[in-house]
Amino acid sequence: MSQYGSLQTRLGLHQRATFVMVVVLVLLFTTLATASVQWRLRSEALSRQFALANLTVRALEDQLTQSLNVVERTLLLSGSTRQRSDKLRAFLQQAPYIRSIALQNSQGVVEASTNAANLGLRLPRQQFMPQSTEPLGVLRTGPLTAGRDFADSRLAGQPAQSGISFIPVALDVMQDDQRWVTVLAALNTDYFLNFYDNHINPQQGQVALLRYDGSLIISTDPQALPGHRGPSRLLAARLAQTDADSYRETWPDGRRVLTAYRASRVYPFVLAVHLDEASALAAWRQEAWRTAWVVAGVLLLLLGVATLYFLRFERLARARARDEQDLRIAAAAFDSQEGIFVTDTRSMILRVNRAFTRITGYTQADAVGQTPRLLSSGRHGPAFYAHLWHQLLSHGSWSGEIWNRRKNGEIYPEWLTVTAVQDACGEVTHYVAMLTDITQRKAAEQEIQQLAYYDPLTRLPNRRLLLERLQRALAHTDSEGALLFLDLDNFKTLNDSLGHDHGDMLLQQVGRRLQAAVGEGDTVARLGGDEFVILLPVLGSSVDEAAALAQRLGESLRLALNAHYDLNGHDYQCTPSIGVSLFADGPRECDELMKRADMALYSAKAAGRNTVRFFDMQLQHSVTERARLESALRRVLAEEQLSLHYQPQVDASGRICGAEALLRWHDSVLGNLSPQRFVPLAEESGLIVPIGLWVLEQACRQLARWAASPHTAALSLSVNVSVCQLRQPDFVAQLRAILAQTGAAPARLVLELTESVLMDDNGSGSSKMRALRRLGVRLALDDFGTGYSSLSYLKKLPLHQIKLDQSFVQGMLSDSHDAAIVRAVLGLAQSLQLDVLAEGVESQAQYTGLLACGCQHFQGYLFGAPQPLAAFEQLLSAAYSSGER
Amino acid sequence: MKYALLCLATLATLPAAAHAGRLDDVLATREVRVCIWPDYYGISYRNPKTRQLSGVDIDMAQGLGRDLDVAVRFVDSSFASLIPDIEQNRCDIAMFAIGINPARSEKLRFTRPHLISDIYAITTKSNRRIQRWEDIDKPGMVVAVAKGTLHEPVMRDKLKQATLLVTDTPQGREQEVESGRADVFMTDYPFSRRMLETTDWARLVAPPATYHLTHYAYAMKKGDDAWYERVSRYLERTQQDGSLAAAIKRHKLDPVAER
């Protein structure tokens, strides 16, 4: 850039120097040309002024000579005969510039004159020139004389009047009598001055009338002194050489003057015209200034325009240099390591660079004219491209990862940046796409991720990944989960005895076993050493459930790790200690949870190792309790701790028509256990299946026994069937086998199902029910009204009976809604031809109410609590005997 | 002598004409005779090159002729011969801007004046002694006036130190100044204009304040009321219809028009 700048500067300086030189040359040339023209004009003006002066002096001399010629003739006429003064006056008419005429006799006395005052004057002859003592027939002139006439002048010895003067002239005339007289005349100076003034004004210069001896007679310059030499010092010398000439000179007062002079052809007078050079050149000077201003103005204007033009030229040159550099940079950038292609607005590829060819395999010839679909990998759907275009159109650019296909078919990831190129109006003209092959980067990234998130030994997630996943799991607050800390007991001993490679081998196998034992959503991580963590993010919705599952899984992990290991030929066995913390144990925070699980692990170790311990002691307790219950339940069938109780069911007349068989468990250690306590556990553990079969078998045996006695032969027996049972694929076959084995009448057996059976699976429940119907057993829907109570089931399923839930029965007298439900259910059953049995009937009033609503069968403490078989049979006998009576 | 005889002859015809007024004569002869001074520039000037008459009073005289429906005959006169020319019936009326002064009023009857002028001096351009009006009445100065003009008595009366030179003719006073025998001559506004326009040497010297105003009018014989009334009526009309003012303006004499 600085190189570019200095080049620019050098270029600019060179151009500027040239420009300044041209400007200076133009200025110089113009100035010289103007000056030369002006000088020529000045010379011409001076020549013209000289010509004017010559012309004027010639005209004035002409007028002077002619005037004097008239004077000479007039004087000749006046003197030719003897004249009286009054006759002389007529001669004055001849020439208005003759003020007076006087005749002087040979004695020099004026004897006649037009002015009486002149008579008798003696006038000196030597004053006149050319001087002559003898009579001379030529006009002679005296000096300028102050006064109006001879009579009041110095010539007459009088004090002269100031301000008025005359030129005395004289002519000797021979009269008829051969006597000479001298005729004198006083010439009016004003006459000549008027004439001169009319030709040359005082500003132009002055006109001087001199005697031929060079003394000044009159001048249009009021300051001139008559009698003295004129202002021109050169004149006398020039006059000595030639009678007419012109020249330039500088006067004593500093003025430069153009002088033209001319002597009269006949008379001893010289006329000189002096033109002031300054005023003679005034017009030229004015014109010269004007021209100079105009030229200067035009020059300035031209210079201004030229400068502006030059600056503009410079700016353009700079812009061009910049553009060229930009182009070079752009060209260099285009040949970068990044693949670049340029498309028009219709996505037609116009240009690609070498890197593009290197990356994609497509040459310029391959790509130009194609659209970028050429590169499409097929991995991105239309939505991806739609998003790309939306982003590009709305923001002017898009960048992101994209999978493309090389010419050889290889699919590779690239980082693509597409930028819209806009023209000056903001219209998009092209798109420039830059792509970088990021295959290696992706691989590196993956490697980095592997290193960052996985334990290199076991390939299990490391602490960081665990924490991330844990954080994610904790964020889902709607599900319970657990964190298990696990370490191997006495792992250090193994390391010490067999070496680290065997220890590592063990850790790898442990990792594999753990991984195999957990579900897909669960995470097995290794924190380091023999420390493993198992994250169980989803363990049902309740704490108890979560705890149970965690316990079970922990247990299964413990057992899995207890199995023998083959460590390079060494048979090895080890035990783990497992600490469990549920999410619900405390704050749902990673650190807290990890700490809790660690503490649980510590307590497991403290509890003697190879065990599972919970962080929460209460939970630990209940889990232990459940475990104990479960192990007890496993023994229950073998040790015959289970028994059935019977609750009587009556018809509308109050006669016992059947019973519901209810399971009872009496443990030698735990005492009597209610079904609510152990049935869920049995269902969870799957023990419900054998227990259920036992119950069915017992019930069928009882039915068979009752069938033998006439007063019990009509009794039906209801048995609850769990979902788990019904889910058994061979449930129907097993029931069929029991019926056959016991010989019980299927019609007396009523299987009570809950709504969950119906909702559990898709249609298999109902098909199984139909199979049960074909066996001849009857089906009842338990707890009707508390669940979904879908009416479509009632229609669809092969039911015999609905058991109206006891909550409605107990509320029917006090709650109008319950009463309404009771009535509705009864009405519905009637119309569907279903039998209804009301549960939980405890008072006569309820019984009466239900009867009034049309209910046919009843069960409840009013008719008898669930009781051992002996008690029930006693009740039957009592009823039978009372009935017989 | 000839002059005296002519006067007598004219006087002899007077009684014959006396019985009838000028108006009747004019109408009878169908001609009005108008005395003019043909050198009076702007008033009654005869161009020497064409012999054409022009001037305010020429226009007015022609107008009078039209008004009377008679021919106009111009009779050359001058200020020197004005009174005898009128008295001896050489013309019916003198129309050349005659300055009214007591001497003339004694002999002549003047119409209502139509111009008014002060006195002006004419000198040569080269005369360095006279620059202002005050320079005129100084010792050694010679002031020329033409005989018979109103300026003669005025200047005779007014000049205290300068010498008065009376010439026989108006041309004489110009020659005196041109030759330098006199320094200035006195004249009125119209004549001064003629000097300035027709010579190259004349220079006007004007009084700084009013010096001596003179009213100009037409003159006719006394005692002829009918003629006088007729002429006055004509003049009154020309004043009212503006033709007099137009004539004055046409000849550039509006600075001296009687207001």
Automatic annotation (TrEMBL), chain A:
Keyword Membrane (UniProt): yes
Domain PAS: 323-371
SMART domains named in the record: EAL, GGDEF, PAC, PAS
Domain PAC: residue ranges: 398-450
UniProt domain GGDEF: residue ranges: 479-617
InterPro entries, A to Z: Biofilm_reg_signaling (IPR052155), EAL_dom (IPR001633), EAL_sf (IPR035919), GGDEF_dom (IPR000160), Nucleotide_cyclase (IPR029787), PAC (IPR001610), PAS (IPR000014), PAS-assoc_C (IPR000700)
PROSITE patterns: EAL (PS50883), GGDEF (PS50887), PAC (PS50113), PAS (PS50112)
The UniProt record lists the keyword Lipoprotein: no
Superkingdom per UniProt: Bacteria
Transmembrane segments: 20-39, 291-311
Keywords: Membrane, Transmembrane, Transmembrane helix
Domain EAL: 626-880
Protein name: EAL domain-containing protein
Source species of the chain: Vogesella aquatica
UniProtKB/TrEMBL annotation, chain B:
InterPro entries: Solute-binding_3/MltF_N
Signal peptide positions (record): 1-20
Residues of the Solute-binding protein family 3/N-terminal domain: 31-255
Record's keyword terms, sorted: Signal
Residue runs in coiled coils: none
Superkingdom of the organism of origin: Bacteria
Pfam families assigned: SBP_bac_3 (PF00497)
Protein name: ABC transporter substrate-binding protein
Native source species: Vogesella aquatica
